[in-house]
Specification:
By secondary structure, this protein is of the alpha+beta class. The protein has 5 helices and 7 strands. The chain has helices at 43-55, 61-64, 77-90, 113-124, 142-145; strands at 6-18, 23-24, 27-28, 33-35, 94-103, 131-136, 149-159. It has a 5-stranded mixed β-sheet. Strands 2-3 form a two-stranded antiparallel ribbon. α4 links the parallel β5 and β6. α1 runs parallel beside α3. The protein is globular and about 45 Å long. It starts with 5 loop residues before the first strand and ends with a strand. The model has no long low-confidence stretch (mean pLDDT 95). The structure holds zinc ion (ZN).
Length: 160
Amino acid sequence: VKKNLLIGIGFDLHPLRARRKLILGGVEIPYHKGLLGHSDGDVLCHAICDALLSALGESDIGSLFPNSDPQYKNISSLILLREVMGRLRKYKRRVMNLSAVIICQEPKLSLYFQTIKERLSAVLLIPKEKIGLSAKTTENLFFIGKKAAIASLAVVLVGE
Ligand SMILES: [Zn+2]
């Protein structure tokens, strides 16, 4: 039995806007809108960052990478995720697995899951098989259903 496991949960949501690239899990997804944010607005990467930081008992990415700081403007969220992984290493800990949901009415994301898993596995240093992704719509209801936003939830297990 593995001891000293830590679990962490993270959530994020960004509004969809015209003239923005849609980046999820570090992968650019063809769509006529993208997520608005100080960084690239990658809700999946942000939810994963917060899940990892939460498992470590640290404060969230909003306080770690403040959106008032110009160095993070339009930054790839994979870079933020790498920085969070650096913290994990300081604690001599590693990711055991990741389970995440993307809540999105459009576009259809499952086509990109393999690419997203490859991208994330390289940063999280876990095999693709340890990454579970699912996509859910909100059945055309609420802001997400009206294609005004995309949200993500992530759960991570962190071991030694
Ligand atoms: Zn975010």
